Amino acid sequence: MSCGNIFSVIKMFLKKATGSFDYLVVGLGNPGKEYENTRHNAGFVAADILADKFNINLSKNKFDAIYGDGTIAGARVIVEKPQTFMNLSGRAVQKISAFYKIPKEKIIVMHDDVSLDVGKIRIRRKGSSGGQKGLANIIELMGSEEIPRIKIGVGAKPHPDYDMKDWVLGHIPAEQQADFKTACENAAKAVEEIIARGIDSAMNKYSK
Questions:
Q1: How many CB atoms lie within 10 A of CB 98?
Q2: Buried b (16+ CB within 10 A) or exposed e, 2-26
Q3: Has 159 been annotated as catalytic?
Q4: Could you tell me the domains of the chain?
Q5: Residue pLDDT, tens place only, 87-97
Q6: What is the per-residue pLDDT across 86-140, written as a single tens digit (0 to 9) for each?
Q7: For residue 80, is pLDDT > 90?
């Protein structure tokens, strides 16, 4: 084994021993069966896909969230699904990032976006919430807009007078299910790309 490989093994062992983590990945949504498969739960769906791929068991229940940890692209990662309901998502993110000392630039948020067509995703390293209330609460409580995020397209409401709450809490229609799943899968892949090769690479590969 080369010196470089030995150093990597030692580094990983020390991280496990101290309980330190490299990234926090947050999927936004609302808890409860009535919200499953709704537009607002795109982040939950993507988080489940990511956790399944990397055998991360989302069974811990603390910090106003359910979460688990594992290894993605050689990094130690926590995957979290806040359980506070969307508008208060920042509580869970603030608590878990503070406890594990994960800096804001190493937090990746996956969330629904009504400005993108179903099937599309877009990656940003920072910026405003764009009206997404879960992200807005995270930005407020973390005190910064410099939080990477992956936006998952759920489509715009059908006409301006349509109530936004009704739209985002509505279910994805059958004819859009395949495209919605593809977008959530690509969001999970983008997380892996960010961790492995950086956000610029992920933006070039997955933002459409």
A1: 11
A2: eeeeeeeeeeeeeeeeeeebbbbbb
A3: no
A4: 19-206 (3.40.50.1470)
A5: 999 999 999 99
A6: 999 999 999 999 999 999 999 999 999 999 999 999 999 999 999 999 999 999 9
A7: yes
